[in-house]
Amino acid sequence: MKRNLLNFALFSILFFCSGATAAETITITTYYPSPCGSYDELRARKIAIGDNYFNTSSYTWGIQVSAEADLVVEGRVGIGTASPVAKLEVKGGHGDSQIRLFSDQYSQGIGGVNTANLNLWASEPGWTWTGAGIGNNVINTSAGGLTRVNTSRGGSYCLDSRRQLCYTNFSGVKYLGIGAMFS
User: Fold this and answer.
1) By three-state DSSP, how is residue 54 classified?
2) Structure letter (DSSP) for residue 124
């Protein structure tokens, strides 16, 4: 009897421990009516996509994402806002609302940073642009009273609401005399 009880206890321990080591599928069951009142959303603090993993020693997510990983969003994506009104909306303060696209292939640029950056940002405080702008490797500085312009790296090119191409640098705005035609 003691031997059977010992075998049963050993089998139970092995059976329950094996389930904790192999988690391959997560099943989410919905209940109606929902006890919390939410029927159309799933909230998570962090989500790993592809081969990302949570490193418990440093409490960070890995950045290795498989080239085959997809994230499909049908609707709107909001960063810094819970209710985006555009397909992609980034909301924040003046200095932290950048969208930055860059190549991680090259790391030997000026100061060891990548040199092929595209930065989009909100209008400067006190300056209003109703057009579109593309920075020319511009970094944050206060030269000449206009932030986001570094005199050693050029300036920014802007297409204003009058469809005029402008160049801004530490000395201000210069119209390049190039108009754009839109239909």
Assistant:
1) strand
2) P
